[in-house]
Design brief:
The chain has about 130 residues and is mainly alpha-helical. The chain has a single domain, classed as Orthogonal Bundle (Histone, subunit A). It has helices at about 5-20, 25-45, 75-85, 90-115; strands spanning about 20, 50-55, 90, 120. The strands form 2 sheets. It has a two-stranded parallel ribbon with strand order 1-4. α3 (about 75-85) links the parallel β2 and β3. It is elongated and about 50 Å long. It starts with 6 loop residues before the first helix and ends in a 12-residue tail after the last strand. The mean pLDDT is about 90.
Length: about 130
């Protein structure tokens, strides 16, 4: 599976938020989480009989999020959802995925700093269950 995340932007987000580096190993679990979140959202949209995956189909949802820039590759997310389920994707979905990535990154920064490291690693990844 190709990456649904914009690695350079995620690295920049982590550097700016935590003044910390990111190992290459962090991105695979992050990408897998985003893929799973998309598949879960597809299932939710289909259960409701909709033909579009919307922001509210994601389990971590923020009304009108204020994001700087998308941390997922919108065209790849839309393509994956279209190929797997034949559904369209709303712009809100991209925003919700970006919020999810930001939440994961913030937690990973905390985990790395708690271990007194200056690099976020794959072991710092934790799938969020709530938004902080």
């Amino acid at each position: 599976m190709e990456s649904l995340i914009v690695i350079s932007k995620v690295k920049k987000f982590i550097k700016e938020k935590g003044d910390i580096n990111t190992s290459a190993g962090f991105f695979e679990p992050l990408n897998q989480d985003i893929l799973k979140a998309c598949r879960d959202a597809i299932g939710h949209a289909q259960k409701l009989g909709r033909k579009t995956v919307m922001g509210k189909d994601f389990n971590l949802y923020i009304e009108n999020p204020a994001i700087g820039e998308a941390l997922v590759v919108a065209s790849k997310v839309k393509k994956m959802i279209k190929e797997e389920a034949g559904l369209s994707t709303s712009a809100q979905a991209i925003d919700q995925l970006t919020i999810r990535i930001q939440t994961i990154c913030n937690l990973a920064i905390e985990n790395a700093k708690a271990d007194k490291r200056k690099t976020v690693m794959d072991r710092d990844f934790a799938a969020p269950t709530t938004l902080t």
